[in-house]
Amino acid sequence: MPDRRPEFGQSDLFQTPRDAPLAQRLRPSQWEELVGHSSLLERLRRLPPHSLILAGPPGTGKTTIATILASHWNRPSFFLSAVSCGVKEVRQVLETARNHPEGAMLFLDEIHRFNKAQQDSLLESAENGRIVLIGATTENPRFEVIGPLLSRCTVYYLEKLGRAELSVIAQRVLEKGFSSNGLQFGEGVLDKVLEAADGDARRLIRILENLATDAIFADRKEIQFDGDLPELSFSYGVDDHYDTISAFIKSIRGSDPDAALLYLAVMLQSGEDPAFIARRLVILASEDVGNASPSALPLAMSVYEGVKNIGMPEARILLAQAVTFLAASPKSNASYLAMDRAMEAVSKKRITVPTHLKNRTTGKKAPYLYPHDYPGHYVEQSYFPVGMEEQALYQPDPIGQEERIRQKLEQLRPGRYRSSAERGSKSDSQQDSNRNSQSPSSESSEASKEGNTGEKTP
To answer: Taking a C-beta distance cutoff of 8 angstroms, is the pair 288, 252 a contact?
Structure first.
């Protein structure tokens, strides 16, 4: 079989120089050498080339499976990391792939780091078969990969490796990585190492490499593990990602800056993308603070832009400022609930624009009162759709700046925007009626209380 290894952008994936990390030097090159995921591997061996996404925690074999598929499917293969490349590099690969009638395989690591426009650049080639795309991600692809691209790929989920599987890899490390040194595990050491690895093969190899190196320098034949591994003590998998961002958002919503800072530190220490955290803060600034403190949103947006331009480690300072400000700000989800009410109203009734609000250049004309021609830049006229009763979809909360907004709106349209106390004085029958008419909003509010755990709410 001719050598079909890649021509572009992939030397670090398919070649293993002597100074490469041990995990890369020990990477399996054949199906039989792979550990774990037996049912998935058997399925992939039978299937013809097709675009797919491998999703799972770090160190579960996503990159290794891609390298073996490249050889198994016998296609020119290219490697890109979404962390360090963009549309330009993707186009280079696609242009090179034109020279291969059977198409080529593109492995895109960390595909969730690509934004929508970057993911869009893959659509046509994935559709027409010019490339077989293999994306790898530690995130949930249903949230982080755009729908059109997701529909062109089969998603395979990889679980953490079990202790038995990690034990096989550990023995392989000693046999192939340190065979000339005759190293053996000390009593109880392997169990401690497997526990510290927490299902991550790459992490396991890194730990063993450190411990084996210590033994060699100490002229010992036995690998010892006498203390903690502080730099390796924190495991952060897919579940941790969603649990931690959920706790982070709920702490800010609950006005506890100290707890929020702790969860922020956990995410940053574990390598979470600072831009992802900043985007969540932008959403929170509007959804949970809103008009109670209108300066929250521009601050969050400024922090988001700053994080993208500055990067770590300084970005942590910007994030901390946003977290403490948002947590300490007065809270209101009135705009969020108002939009839910508007969406619900539109879904139940056809909207007809009043004649006086239509574009004057088309159709029938009706007198439109231009507010700037009147005292106070305001004039009474109806803006609601034809046949729809005027109602307060937006119900400002009596807190912070939003209370002043409510007072202003009540002054302009008396009776529509009552205070919360006045709204609470309605009769029981009116309250029951309102609860029924607003039940979708109430459900949405309850869902919001649970907290969105990613940029795209499941």
So the answer is: yes
Distance in angstroms (rounded) separating the CA atoms of residues 213 and 52: 38
The CATH number, out of the four listed (1.25.40.10, 3.10.150.10, 1.10.3710.10, 3.10.250.10), of the domain defined by the range 334-450: 1.10.3710.10
DSSP string, 132-154: EEEEEESS-HHHHS-HHHHTTSE
357: left (phi over 0), alpha (psi -120 to 50) or beta: alpha
pLDDT in tens, 67-104: 999 889 888 889 998 878 888 899 888 888 888 877 88
The count of other CB atoms within 10 Å of the CB of residue 240 is 16
Q: Which of 144, 155, 84 is nearest to 116 (CA)?
A: 144
CB-facing half-sphere around the CA of 282: CA atoms within 13 A: 15
* pLDDT confidence bin for 419, thresholds 50/70/90: low
CATH architecture of structural domain 11-157: 3-Layer(aba) Sandwich (3.40)
Is residue 62 a contact partner of residue 68, using CB atoms and an 8 Å limit? no
Domain range list for the chain:
11-157, 163-232, 238-328, 334-450
Terminal C-alpha separation, the chain: 46
pLDDT digits 0-9 by tens, 233-262: 445 555 577 788 889 999 999 999 999 999
- Cα(434)–Cα(440) distance, rounded to whole angstroms? 11
Question: What's the whole-model pTM score?
Answer: 0.52
Cα separation, 376 vs 351, whole angstroms:
30
